[in-house]
């Protein structure tokens, strides 16, 4: 599933191609792609026609298109009068692609958005249909406007208002394994399985270390490592293991060449040469170095 760097790459691409453009028509080709929009396809398409995309935002793994008025004063507002956004979650295979009008449809095209300037159209493509789009009210949380569905999501390390001290305190207050805490989007958002493993490797911490046993200094170092590795991944266009994650132009990222732990089972650790191990974790996998990241005592699973 795309994590913060991958979603930020998509957000930046959308900002360059669709911001300040007015929607002329929306086509829903597969209703599962808007299943989170309870009022259905007719309402979704009707309310977007004639609306302008004012900004493209992101928090953690979510991105959204802020809507503004275009031809009608009520455009870009819900029936409650609140300003609205198109909230997008990419799921396992969702793609937001910018394509010239008339380009052949992708096999798994789910939603098409055309614009009044007859320029390139925006397409939501999703092979597995785990992702989706929905209209949602914007609400203010701590001075930031967020879609109401993700108002509970914590700030991510790339947010200018991210408070490292607050995040350190939040992680240490939980009685759980450190990787579970890293993946808890209400504590710090944007970190998923890939960058959690990379941050833990850089911090020399095993994923099962209890968070309430970590010192503030080690927790700070872990969150700093997560921020650093995601910044490096962003510079490389994100991490792509297959063709399912691409930017808005259909190009893959290449940070997978720089991974030290995730997906490296059996390969030598870049620090000590010990073979990287793979362990089951929450119905997926966790990768670590047995020597650099020893399992905490008392945890022999």
Strand line-up in the sheet with most strands = 2-3-4-8-9
Kindly report how far apart the N and C termini lie: 26 Å
Mean pLDDT reading = 92
Task: Tell me the quaternary state.
Answer: single chain
Identify the CATH architecture of the largest domain: Alpha-Beta Barrel
SSE order, as H and E? HEHEEEEEEEEHHHHEE
- Show unreliable segments: none
SS-derived structural category: alpha+beta
Biggest sheet statistics: 5 strands, antiparallel
**Tertiary shape:** globular
CATH third-tier fold name of the largest domain: N-terminal domain of MutM-like DNA repair proteins
| Helix count from the secondary structure assignment | 6
Number of strands: 11
Query: What amount of the residues lies in strands?
Result: 15-25%
Helix percent band:
10-25%
* Fourth CATH level, the homologous superfamily of the largest domain: MutM-like, N-terminal
